[in-house]
Structure formats: C-alpha cells, structure tokens
Amino acid sequence: MSYISYIRTSTDKQNLGLDAQRNTIANYISSNGGDIVAEYVEQVSGAKNDRKELNKALAQCKKEGHTLLVAKLDRISRRVSFIANLMESNVQFKVAELPNADPFQLHIYSALAEQEKLLISSRTKQALAIKKAQGVELGKHGKVLAKKNHKAKMDFVNKVMPTILEIKDSG
Prior knowledge:
single chain, alpha/beta, 14% strand
C-alpha cells in the first residue's frame, strides 16, 4: 500500500505536534506495512476547508492512486460535512489512530471532533470574558502591531516624499 501523509497543526508554534503526528504515522506504517511516497505539512486552522497542502495531497492521491494517511481524524477536519464529502470522493484515506475504523465509525468520530471544536470555542470565549472582566486588555497584540505598521508606513512616506515632491515640481 502506498500512502501520502498529511500532517497539520493550527499554528506555527505547534512544531512538537508535527513530530507527534509523524511518530503516529511511522508507528502505523511499522505495524501495517506500506510506504509513504510523499508528505504534506500545513500549519493552518483546520476550520478552513480550502487548505493548499491538503488539496495537493488529495490531488496526488487521486491522480496516482495513493491512500491519504493522517495521524488523527481532526487533522483533516473537525467538520462532519467535510469528512463525509471526502468519504464519498474517489480518494481513500486512513487514520493511523483508528486503523480499523469503518465508515460508520468515522462519521461518529467526525461528529465528536465537530462537537469538540464547538466546546473549544465556547471555553475560549468564556475564559476571555473572565479575563476581560478582570481588567485584562484583550486584543493588545493587534494594537501593538497596528502602531508598528503605522510607524513603518510613516517612515516610508517620509523617506520617499522628498523624491515624489521633486519629481512633481519638475513636471
């Protein structure tokens, strides 16, 4: 069996998560056999359905007849509809942590992953509301970046403005 592995974390700060997924996939291959012919890695939210590396992996699987292999189901998506559409496509996929899962079980696990996504969002909103009530300024990082970007813009304007005025004055 030939596999294309797809590994994803939500942010570029989760590099240990990439290694953990690689380890899970390697253990699957060791136990079940097969070869990894390509690996696609992405560090982007799974909430996005249009992910470049996932799309490349799926296209290669479809074109060359490989099976997509992921460490965990939620690395593909936490949306039941996305998993259901993938199951109905011509692309085969395996989940290393669920090596014997049948389509019915994958639907159930995808529903659980979707519910977990909603719970994560709810917990995050509750925690942020508590912090805000405690007087913590939320969104501060965005304000810091906005000031930095504005300063960079003004530095650039001040640098090029004499040249622009000179060209304008010369006609």
